[in-house]
């Protein structure tokens, strides 16, 4: 198979290694969960971003809710979520309660809520995040809630709106090393993302702060170590590191399949820096096994 993106000559994609091959599954068990989500007009990042773990999670009755519609205002080179004009907010009025009802039906002990970017909104959708957190709290008062938010274009008031709704974990992903931002995440700013994470800690001493990034996009090991140092210097408690997988031929190609022993090296380096938890491996994703990662971090 050949891959071509603008500015690059076609080249053969590296062969998927054995450690990234997952066994075929009977996905019939997923259908009820998907049907329940569809009847409520809900989306999951598991499906929209083509997560390789989605069948595992759906079979366990777990999913990461994606709010604010299914259309993102940004066009990151790694992400398969569609880009364009988002749904009118008046059409999403019921979304917080629908998320809460779905989480209650699934009897989730740990609820993860993320969103598309909605840069055209004055608050980037922060108030909608807060309404969704509150709705889930009312239905599942004993459950933990993690939010994985956009950068809100650095809007501190928007960030405070989300944090004042008191999520248990605040997650914002840096996605890659700063040198690659222009290609991987062109509408974002590395330093701004670090400031979002630090400001979350400064606003709330109780919230667990978390960030994640991908490898295999052309970064160097020294750059990964510097990125981990930056995250720790900005008071991040938990970090997730996973292998980038090209979702479609239109997206950035995989530059390298990183060996599991290098993931272990990154994990050990992060632990030496003082992170409360480092979840590092080829199939690790930001929200995958989030309840387990939260528990590990809280115990440290």
Can you characterise this structure?
The structure is a single chain. This protein has 300 residues and is of the alpha/beta class. The protein has a single domain (27-299), classed as TIM Barrel. 36% of the residues lie in helices and 14% in strands. It is built from 11 helices and 10 strands. Helix 9 (221-233) links the parallel strand 8 (208-215) and strand 9.
Q: How is this structure best summarized?
A:
By secondary structure, the protein is an alpha/beta fold.
Task: Please render the helix and strand layout as text.
Elements: E1 2-3, E2 11-12, H1 31-39, E3 43-44, H2 45-48, H3 54-59, E4 64-67, H4 95-105, E5 110-115, H5 126-139, E6 144-148, H6 156-163, E7 169-171, H7 181-184, H8 190-203, E8 208-215, H9 221-233, E9 238-243, H10 260-273, E10 277-280, H11 290-299
Parallel strand pairs: 4-5, 5-6, 6-7, 7-8, 8-9, 9-10
Antiparallel strand pairs: 1-2, 3-4
Mean pLDDT: 86
Number of domains: 1
Largest sheet: 8 strands, mixed
Spatial ordering of strands, largest sheet: 3-4-5-6-7-8-9-10
What is the CATH superfamily classification? Aldolase class I
Number of helices: 11
Q: Determine the fraction of residues in helical runs and give it as a percent range.
A: 25-40%
End-to-end distance = 45 Å
Order of helices and strands: EEHEHHEHEHEHEHHEHEHEH
């Amino acid at each position: 198979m050949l891959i071509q993106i603008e500015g690059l000559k076609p080249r053969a994609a590296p062969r998927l290694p054995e450690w990234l091959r997952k066994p075929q599954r009977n996905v019939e068990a997923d259908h009820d969960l998907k049907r329940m989500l569809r009847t409520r007009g809900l989306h999951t990042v598991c499906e929209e971003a083509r997560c390789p773990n989605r069948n595992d999670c759906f079979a366990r009755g777990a999913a990461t809710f994606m709010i604010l519609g299914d259309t993102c205002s940004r066009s990151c080179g790694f992400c398969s979520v569609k880009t364009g004009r988002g749904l009118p907010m008046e059409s999403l009025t019921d979304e917080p309660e629908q998320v809460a009802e779905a989480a209650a039906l699934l009897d989730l002990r740990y609820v993860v809520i993320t969103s598309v970017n909605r840069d055209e909104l004055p608050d980037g959708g922060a108030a909608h995040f807060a309404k969704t957190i509150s709705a889930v709290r009312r239905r599942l008062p004993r459950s933990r809630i993690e939010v994985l938010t956009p950068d809100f274009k650095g809007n501190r008031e928007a960030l405070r709106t989300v944090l004042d709704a008191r999520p248990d974990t605040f997650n914002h992903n840096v996605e890659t090393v700063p040198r690659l931002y222009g290609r991987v995440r062109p509408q974002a700013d590395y330093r701004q993302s670090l400031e979002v994470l630090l400001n979350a800690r400064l606003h709330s001493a109780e919230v667990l702060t978390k960030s994640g990034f991908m490898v295999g996009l052309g970064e160097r090991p020294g750059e990964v170590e510097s990125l981990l140092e930056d995250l720790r210097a900005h008071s991040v408690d938990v970090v997730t590191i996973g292998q980038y997988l090209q979702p479609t031929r239109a997206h950035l190609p995989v530059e390298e399949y990183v060996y599991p022993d290098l993931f272990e090296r990154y994990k050990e380096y992060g632990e030496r820096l003082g992170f409360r938890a480092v979840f590092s491996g080829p199939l690790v994703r930001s929200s995958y096994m989030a309840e387990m990662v939260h528990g590990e971090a809280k115990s440290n």
